[in-house]
Specification:
The chain is mainly α. It contains seven helices and no strands.
Length: 142
């Protein structure tokens, strides 16, 4: 069968061709065709990168913002006033205990969704100007 016939029959036929040609090569007979792939496996880099010295001289600090210690203290005080452990608060907010511990220590990246869940669980505001003040419970807007 010609190669164009194999292409017409689809990918399954091409797999059958490759299997039959590899079996023929193992037996030592048959017509086996090999082709070289150009620039394959050479790990070539076509772009120019910055010099290492230039990278060292850059002063831009690349880091993520962290939860402030004020927010961490607010979580801890609110949790203790409710009589909850870190594990209890994590269970109440459907988070892992490590998430609560990281927020209390100020090591976590701020996430408004998680902070909102913790606010509702402990009853204290953790975001904005009113950080540490109780949440006023009233009718919800529709």
């Amino acid at each position: 069968m010609a190669e164009s016939d194999w292409k017409k029959k689809g990918p399954m036929a091409a797999q059958a061709k490759s299997k039959s040609s590899s079996l023929a090569a193992q037996r030592g007979g048959g017509d086996v065709e090999a082709s070289k792939k150009w620039a394959a496996g050479q790990n070539k880099q076509d772009w120019i990168t910055k010099n290492t010295a230039e990278l060292d001289l850059e002063t831009e600090e690349l880091h993520h913002d962290r939860v402030t210690l004020e927010v961490g203290r607010g979580i801890q005080q609110g949790r203790q006033s409710e009589g909850l452990t870190q594990k209890d608060l994590a269970t109440k907010t459907n988070e892992k205990p490590q998430v609560v511990a990281d927020r209390e220590r100020g090591r976590a990246i701020p996430n408004n969704q998680v902070l909102g869940e913790i606010e509702r669980a402990i009853g204290l505001k953790l975001r904005g100007k009113a950080t540490g003040k109780p949440i006023e419970k009233g009718p919800r807007a529709k």
